[in-house]
Each structure stands twice: as C-alpha cells, then as structure tokens.
Amino acid sequence: MDKEERKTINQGQEDEMEIYGYNLCRWKLAIVSLGVVCTGGFLLLLLYWMPEWRVKATCIRAAIKDCEVVLLRTTDEFRMWFCAKIRFLSLETHPFLSPKSMTNKVANGHAVHFTENLATENRHEMSKYSQTQPQQVRYFTHHSVKYFWNDTLHNFDFLKGLDEGVSCTSIYEKHSAGLTKGMHAYRKLLYGVNEITVKVPSVFKLLIKEQYVMLHDMVAAHSTVRVSVCRANGEIEEIFSTDLVPGDVMVIPLNGTVMPCDAVLINGTCIVNESMLTGESVPVTKTNLPNPSVDIKGMGDEFYSPEIHKRHTLFCGTTVIQTRFYTGELVKAVVVRTGFSTSKGQLVRSILYPKPTDFKLYRDAYLFLLCLVAVAGIGFIYTIINSILNKVEIGVIIIESLDIITITVPPALPAAMTAGIVYAQRRLKKIGIFCISPQRINICGQLNLVCFDKTGTLTEDGLDLWGIQRVENTRFLLPEENVCNEVLVKSQFVACMATCHSLTKIEGVLSGDPLDLKMFEAIGWILEEATEEETALHNRIMPTVVRPPKQLLPESTHAGNQEMELFELPAIYEIGIVRQFPFSSALQRMSVVARVLGDKKMDAYMKGAPEIIASLCKPETVPTDFEKVLEDYTKQGFRVIALAHRKLESKLTWHKVQNISRDVIENNMDFMGLIIMQNKLKQETPGVLEDLHKANIRTVMVTGDNMLTAVSVARDCGMILPQDKVIIAEALPPKDGKVAKINWHYADTLTQCSNSSAIDSEAIPIKLVHNSLENLQVTRYHFAMNGKSFSVILEHFQDLAPKLMLHGTVFARMAPDQKTQLIEALQNVDYFVGMCGDGANDCGALKRAHGGISLSELEASVASPFTSKTPSISCVPNLIREGRAALMTSFCVFKFMALYSIIQYFSVTLLYSILSNLGDFQFLFIDLAIILVVVFTMSLNPAWKELVAQRPPSGLISGALLFSVLSQIIICIGFQSLGFFWVKQQSWYEVWHPQSDACNTTRSLYWNSSYLDNETKPDTHNIQNYENTTVFFISSFQYLIVAIAFSKGKPFRQPCYKNYFFVVSVIILYVFILLIMLHPVASIDQVLQIVCVPYQWRITMLMIVLVNALVSIMVENFFLDMVLWKVVFNRDKQGEYRFTTTQPPQASVDRWGKCCLSWALGCRKKIPKAKYMYLAQELLVDPEWPPKPQTTTEAKALVKENGSCQIITIT
C-alpha cells in the first residue's frame, strides 16, 4: 500500500484517527444509484449508516494529497468510521489579501502561529511554498473542526491558535500590540467565524435528537456581542464578537462581559464567574500573565498553556463581573482560541459528538437482530420453495417472501426500546434528576462502583473554623478558639488570615472561596477595595486594603519619656494587599505580598496544604512535632491549613513586585501555625452509603483534601468500617538512578511501628481462601493513596495498578485530570463506574464515568450526563434504582418484541404451508391494538422502592434471558401448532369454501348474510379458513400471555398490577378477544375475515389458551425466577460481606446459564469474564498480598517494557 494513502491525524491525542484518500468513481456511482432504485431506497439508508461502505462503494483509492473524499477511522477500541468531502478555500477574492503574498502563506493550510513582520513573513512563505497552487487551500471539516492540508507535514492538520507553542514572552512582545486589518482579515478567512453553532436538525431528525434544541439555546445566549479590539496602529475598533480571531487584543469593558472566546490577560485584573465550565459559582480572580522578560530572577521562557496558566486566562462562556485597571491602560487580553477550539466549544463538541457507550445490551441487541434476520432468511427461502412447488404466481411469491422478512425483524423495535428510557427519564425528572444522555440510564442499572467527591458531596459545602494553633519559638502553643481579640489583632498570624485570600466585593457583598470567607469572618476585619475613580487618580492599581474594627485596636498610649513620643502606636492600622498569587490546585497553596501602612518593608504571606507549606519554610521554624500534631487533627477529620510569613527585602519596590515570579516569594518562610477547619458530614451521607453497601455496590472517595482527613471522613461515613485496615501506598518516582518504589504503611501503625517484627500478627488483614469465587469471604482491607503516588503507580507499576483498583477506597490530593485517570483505571478492570461530584473539579471524571451525576444546577452540569437538583448524594441510589428498572424494562420489551416477531412469523409460516395468510385487518389488529398498546404500557412499571444486592443481567446473550425467550418460543410454537393441526382432526373440518356450514346455518341468519357477502367478494388470497381463524385467536392470546409473563416486578421494578395502564389495557384486550371468539359479532368477523367454527371448538381454543397461559407463567415466574435465579442470588449472598467496600459484587446473574452448563459437563471452575473478578481469584492464592506493613515494592529497571515489580521487605 502506498504510504500516501494512509496517514494519522491528531496523533497521540484522544481523537486520533487514521485517514485514507478516495476519489469519486462514476461507474461505481451509477451502479449504486441503480441499486438504490431497485431496493426502493433501502440501499441508500444502509450506506447512510455505514460510511465505510458508502465511500468504498462509490470511490476508488487515491493519494491523500490529491483526493476528493477522506475516510476516517478512530484508533480507539470502537474503531468508528467517518467520511468527509474535501473542500477548497479560495484566497484570491479577499480585498485585504495580496494574491502574491498572503496566498502563499496559507497555500499549504498551515497557519499555526504568526509573526508581526508581515512582509518578511510573506517572502519566507513564498519561497517555502513556491511550487504550490496559491489560489486555493484544501480542507475538510470533521466534528466542527477544519483540517487544512499541510505541505510541510504532508498531511492534514487543524489550525491551532496561540494556545500551543507560543512562549509567554512572545505574547507580550509579538501579540500585545494587536493585528493590522489585513492580518485580521487573513486570519478570519482561515479560522472562520468565531461562533459555536449548533445546527438544529429538521423536525424528522429532532424526533431522535431532541438534545440539540437545548444545546442550541445554551450556546446562542452568548453568540454575538460587540467588542472593542486594539489595532497595531494604536486605534481601538469596535467589531462583532463573531469577527474575533486568535491574535486580536480584546479590551475587557469596565462593567464586565460574557467572554466570546478564550483570551489571556496581559493588562489588569478581572473577577470572573466560571460556573459555566467548572460548576463552581465562587468568583475567581484573574491576574495578568507574568512577563518573563521583566521578571527579576526570571522563570525561564516557558510556553503559554491555558491549563497551566488558567489563573491568567479568561475562558469562553465565563462571565467577567468586574475589572481593575491601570490609568491610561485598559484591561486587555490577547485572543488565543475561537469557535469550537475554545474550552466552551470543546465542551459542546463533547456533547454533540460523544464517545459511543460500549454497553453489552446494545451489542447484544444487534446480535439478536442478526439472529432474527437469519430466521427471516430461513422463512424467506421456505416461502419461495413452498410457493414454487405449489405453482404460485411470481408476483405473489415476491410479496409473500418479502412479507416474512418485515414480520420477523420488527421495525417498531427501536421505538419500543426507547419507551422505557423515556418513561425512566420522566420519573427521574420528577425526583429532581435531569438527564442529557438518556441512553446512560440503562447503563446506570449496571453500576457496581461509585466514586464520590468529598467536600460539598459527602460533607457540607461550608467549613466552620474550629480554632487555630500558633507557633512561637518553634513550639506549638495550645489551640485557641477565639481569633477575634485585642491580643492577636496585630500579630503576623492574624495579618496572614486577613490578607492571604482571594476575596472581593461584588455589589458591596464580600464573596469568594467559602474557606477564605470563613477565615476572614472569624477575625472580624473589614475589606475595602478602591473605587474606579480612586484607581483612575493613580498610575497603578490601588491595593485592596484590610483593617480591623476600631474596637479591637488598643488606645494610643504616650511613652514614659518625651523622646519616645514620636514612636506612639498609630491610631490607624491598615494592610494593603500589593500582589496576589492565586491558589493553584497543582501547587496546593496561595500567597500574597502585603504592606502595613507606614512600614518600609513588604511582607509575604502564604497559606495552603500543611505538608507543602512546611517544605517551603526554614526547617528551624517548623516544630519537631509538626507531623504528629497534623496527624492528630487529620485523623479526627479536621481540614488543616498552614500559614507562613517572611519580611521581604527593602529593595523590592511596588513595580518590581508586580512582575516577580511567585517562586521568588514562596520560599525561606517562617512557619506560623495551623488553622483548623471542621467539615461536617451531610446528614444523609451515612445512610446512603449503607444502602449502597447493602446493595453490594463499592464506594470510593476521590478528593483534593489531605489523605488522613479523607480516611477519617471515610471511617465516619461508613465507607471504611471500624474493624477494617487501611494500607497507605506511598509511591516515590525514580530519583538519582534509583528505581520507583512504593512504601506500604498501615494507617493505624503509621508512627508507632519501628520494624516489621514488632507488628502483631492480628494487625494483618484476614484473607480466607475458598475453592470458588462464589464462596469468597471478602478481605477487609483498603488502600489509600494521594495523587502523586497514584500517578507514579500508573506510570511505573502497570501490573500492580489493577490490584490496587480492586481494593482502593481513598484517593486524596487528586488533581482534576487524575480523577479522570482513576475512572479510566477502574473501567479498565471492567467496573461499571458512577461518579458523583459537586462539579467544581469533577467535570472530566463526570463525563468519563458510565454514570456521572453532578450536584450542581449550574451550566457546568451540561458536562455531566445527570444533574441532581438537590445537592445530596441521595440521588445516587435513586438513579441506580431507575437505571435497573429501565434496564429490566428494556429486557422485557426486547423479549416481548422478539416473541411477537417469532409468534407472528410462525403463524404466517404455518398458514403459508396451506397457501394462506393472515388478513390485512388481522395484521392491523395485532400490530396496533395489541402490540403497540402493550409495548407502551408495559414500560410504565416504576422502579422498586429499595436497592437490592442483585444486579440485572448486563446483556441479552445471557443464560437467564436466553432460557426465558427460548422456553416461551417453544411453548408458543407448541400450542400454536397444536391448534393448527388439531383443527384438521375435527369431524366437521373440511377445506373451507364459501358454502361451508360447520356452524349449522340454521342457528341464525347471521351466517347466511355472511355467506352472501363472501360469495360476492371472492377470497383470492385464501385468508378465510378454519386454520387461519384458529391460529389468529390462539396467537392473539399468546401476545398478551407473554406480555404478562415478561412484565417482571420485584426486585427491580414495581409489580405489574401496580401499572394501572397496563392492567386496564390487557383486561380490555382480553375481554374483546374473548367476546369475538365466544360470541361472534358479524361486522367484526367480516372485517377481520374470521370464519364460523363450532362453539365446541371455540371452547377447545379457550382451553388451549388457558393451558398455554398456565405453562408460560409457571415456566417464567416459578421455574426461572424461583429456582434458577434464586440459586444464583443465594450464591451471591454467600459471597458478600455486608458492608464491604473492597470486594466487587458477584456479577454472575448474567452468567448463571453458562455456569449451569459447565456444571452439567463436569467443569465448574471457569475463569470469570470481568477482570476484577479474575484478579480477586488471583489474589486469594497470592501469599504476598496484601503487602505487609513497613515493606517496599520496587519497580524493576525495565519497567517501561513490562511494568513488572518485586517486593522487598525492609527490616
């Protein structure tokens, strides 16, 4: 194969794809067109859903460089195909572009970054691409992203903004002045309009894509506003936001705005509400990007990244509430990304083009349909052979053979399957859970592990200040509860609490991070911000000022002698916040530079995670018992914040501080003490977690908080039981030529154990070995680790990671991307993972989980499949209950539709054998009156009131479901055949003709009139006969019988008798069919083409139906549920530990059929399909697992190749 014909785009990224080139082939197109006509459009529909077939059927392979169509295939596990048409962008016609210069710049479609010297740049590009055709640029669009041909790469590539490969220095030096009008027009031509367009499909498509309307409304709100931009010549021009391009310098208005793009601040400060993206309604302070060229020490010319520099980046869709600025210098930001490339655009793209949900139900549904197609094929061949042998006309053969296919593969199946999900969505809405991805409801029925964020999810949002513990002379003082007093008012400790925060006043109300608010309220100080008028009078940003209330300040006292009067304590005590380094979750700290009114030197204050703060302080200022004191607090579940301070050198002027790197400030500090905050559990948390544990659903905590605090909260809420052991995995990366290693500590023996021999044998978790996985007694131990250790384990201990996933319960200090990686790691061992978070840092994890539930009502919930109106985890069991009910409804409906197809298929096949068929109105009555009504009412069963330990089967190809369907098929076919052949054995039976008199015409004139009608309307299709009437009545009852048999209730749904619509519908249908069978009505019989049969045969048919019903119900509800399923569920209960969080549930419900079969064949022991179950089996016989206390696991030198590791015991 020519290398030109296959390439890879987006290499190494999540949306990596292989690309193939094709050209349109006229003769292939002509053949396909003919096929479309011959199949009545069916081929067109097939090719619409199969892009690979469509392209290969109409095109021939070509070099990608010169192709007309590209075929794309994702490189992930789904291997999905897409196709796109190559288009051409003409550059000659634009008034601002010079054909000889500008067009050469983009002839290859490669315009990633730009320089300011356009003339030089254009000459360089002309020489570089002199052999290209300058008039047009080739590109295609896929998932709202344009890919241009790049001659340098010999491949297609998407246009990047200023968010990749641009240094912080160049943003100031090359991009801060603005664009010329010519360059702006040129970039707009390439980047297109700055808008996030969600095209609302036609009414027909909206039937299956209702989500688009909501998305369209969401993005339309911020689509077009007027903005001011700076041009290279110093002018300020007002343009529409849709005209913005990367490189434009946007002026942020004083009264704020909704950001129409992603931009990096280069001047001034902004207060921003980012709830649209993060779910966190707390205003965030954004400062200008540090300029490395004026940095005192310099932090290196690092590349700008919106993620790394998010505290300096204004994201699209977020709201700028306030701005603070320099005199004569507006608040400016350089546009770095526009349209679908922005953070908001990427969010909308992830919703418009989600990853397919790889759920066994849907895969099995396709497989089951293929089986039905195979059955239809058999019927198709049988019909043709039978008709030819009976010398039927060719036209009738074609119609009847195609008819058997439409009967076997029910076209109403997708609508029927969707009904249960729609009803579940409606029920969820009633209890305050909103859903934007309905297909996920079914998947939620399979969840066997749920991850919870801690703060705001398991615990209350707000923190209460429990007290402080200051340090003096490197020793901790006693804890103090009251901070607001005269003794401490001028201490550095209180000064740090007063200044080291990101609080701001919005419309006169103090707002910001809840922790900062509680801390500031505890000291009772007052915060004052400069007004716009005050700022305008100075040539720099006026600092925010904090001061204590007057009643806390001691009175001015005169000194004892005359000389000291000059050194009286000033009556006014104020601190100005000169520079703020915002809190960073990566750094786990924040700091400020402040100055006390009248002091010459500035002060640096820092607060953050105690371990981090202590490491940045002078060792001699940190108390020796620091770790013990910290551990005591965290074990009690307190949230601990450490404070530090140092005096800055007098040479640091205000101007220098504005451009200094935080690394220069945040070191060599003096440790000042701890702030202890109390984070209370939500009232409903323990109860919900207990319900989940009883239901055999694992719970995991994922938090950004301290590990010991997290472990303490896990114990308090019942996630870890008092008798359970906690093993802390402390992973260290390779250093100084040494390999990566993991130190294992037992949480209860973390400080008191000096060597492994001192450990009592009872401290080692109990592990009971059994002969089979079903009888596994769960080992009661849990792993806990922080984010850094988790990353090291994923990178250097690939074979150990799955084992830790099996028993990992607490993951602390986890960054947002690490939360997503954890979800993926759990999914890699075949868990169905739910994620519940408040939306602050959980967006990625919420999207990645099988069932993500956001407790935030804000627009960030768009990132999550589910959003709870009530900020409580009680929504989790409710969602799982509804998911299980919806899943069982899907199974019931699918089984019913399968039986409906097979029953009708067999009815028609039997009648074809005598060259008969069901009549048109018989088909209509069955399809509309019976099937449609039953399908849409049997889906209305609500969810069962509580969660049970069993889980429903995950797929249709499972022992229980296959047995259910096959047994009912055999029963229905048996009784239908019985009626069909038995009627022929009756003494009154004859081949029916209009003069047949099986009912004795003397009974009434009814039948005489019927005969006269029949004589005037000849039955050319042989519909009217005794076999047809018998088969019609028996099959009509069979549809209702299997509907009742399949309408399962407990343990996943409410009993069917509580589904009043279903009960009433079935009763009405039963009464109606009984009425026309036992007491014929002439007009109805005439319409349905039913013939008269003796009353005795009617009673016989009734008896056949009653026995059929009895056998069907007994097999389905007694033999299947009471015997086979009960055996499986009892086996589950034997293997479960009631409150375990470490052992996954035994997912054998959908494997019991295979277990029984293997048992019958004498081979009980089989390797389970789920990886976590296989691992559980392995760990049972592993003598080295769990790791012993005070041992170390080291990675081998060739860790990158095989990820193997060895355990070394350190004594």
Overview of this structure, please?
It is a single chain. This protein has 1211 residues and is an alpha+beta fold. The protein folds into 6 domains: 1-94 and 134-158, no CATH class; 161-353, Calcium-transporting ATPase, cytoplasmic transduction domain A (Distorted Sandwich), CATH 2.70.150.10; 360-432 and 879-990 and 1022-1130, Calcium-transporting ATPase, transmembrane domain (Up-down Bundle), CATH 1.20.1110; 449-458 and 682-748 and 780-869, HAD superfamily/HAD-like (Rossmann fold, 3-Layer(aba) Sandwich), CATH 3.40.50.1000; 464-530 and 537-551 and 573-679, Calcium-transporting ATPase, cytoplasmic domain N, CATH 3.40.1110; 1146-1182, no CATH class. It contains 40 helices and 42 strands. A 12-stranded mixed β-sheet has the order 20-40-39-38-21-33-37-36-34-35-41-42, with helices on both faces. Strands 23-22-32-31-30-29-28-27-26 form a 9-stranded antiparallel β-sheet, with helices on both faces. Strand 22 (464-472) and strand 23 (475-476) form a beta hairpin. Helix 32 packs antiparallel against helix 37 (1095-1134). The chain crosses the membrane at residues 27-49, 365-385, 405-424, 891-915, 921-944, 956-983, 1029-1047, 1059-1079, 1099-1124. This is Polyamine-transporting ATPase 13A3. GO terms for molecular function: ABC-type putrescine transporter activity; ATP binding; ATP hydrolysis activity; ATPase-coupled monoatomic cation transmembrane transporter activity; metal ion binding; P-type ion transporter activity.
